[in-house]
Fold this protein.
Amino acid sequence: MTIILAGDIGGTKTLLRLAEKSGAEWRSLYEQRFASANYASFSDVLREFLAQSKQNLGDLPNLAAACFGIAGPVRDRRSKLTNLGWSFDSDRLAEEFNIPKISLINDFVAVGYGVLGLQPHDLHTLQDGNVLERAPIGVIGAGTGLGEAYLGWNGDRYEVYATEGGHTDFAPRNELEIELLKYLQQRHDRVSVERVVSGMGIVTIYQFLRDNQAAPESSEIAEKVRQWESGDVESGAAAAIAKAALANCGINSETNGDHLATQTMQMFVEAYAAEIGNLALKLIPNGGLYIAGGIAPKILPLLQDGTFLRILKSKGRVSPVLEDIPIHIVLNPEVGLIGAMLYGAISI
């Protein structure tokens, strides 16, 4: 039996798990969530987690390896958390906590490995397609930003390759999106697709439609957007817009929906679908195309009416290329933690 310590580490939350691997089977031994901002360093979090693990399990098992997925770039076995400033050095951590081997990987690379460990109930399938063994696998996910990665067969197993696809140029497809691009060009030197397809993108689209007086603005959402504009990125503006749009289509009766929010989410869904289709054309991921990130599961009803899939596959004369690709939405929020766990075992 092999004990792996896995972590999914971001500026808002840190998830840590001790897991036991026996053959091909995994068993979670202990797991805990931490508010990252409450700690001066990752070492403080890890020290507390190991102490609580020992208390809950009766004794701390011998660790074979650890892997941490970090929301930041990883170079030379070192990393820095982009939105919090924590620094990571795998060799120093291994020595400090007496762990034989510690791997650091980017958080979206962890998501890429995580899709290999998902079960059918962790997915909502938009298109069954035809899975080709050892074919490329694509992963894309809108959340705080827009992550894109792919998996390729290396002769023995799948390996994840990180990309910066979310920072490629935003490509408008119609007059309204062209106007959105012009609106953004007045505010930024360059407009990446992440400016539109992300949590901040939802708020940006809302601002564009609001400033163009596309529809009246509700006071509740207006206040959250004003807070966001003043620098409060935790105002919940994007979530409020999405919730109102869901209410407008009868999904969430607790909130009165509004047309401005509905139009915002329509534009967001279409832009998201188009970018997923772009990634699919670049990779031809006949091993599967996985839509991860925190946004898709929360707006699932907006992705199920056929429009999302139609736009995703609307690529002119090459559209038939996408008909056989299996397309799934990842529902499991711990996919990154699963990926860190799997990579930790691979690295031994």
Remarks:
- The mean pLDDT is 92.
- Residues 125 and 328 are 4 Å apart (CA to CA).
- The first strand starts at residue 2 and ends at 9.
- Residues 259-283 form the longest helix (25 residues).
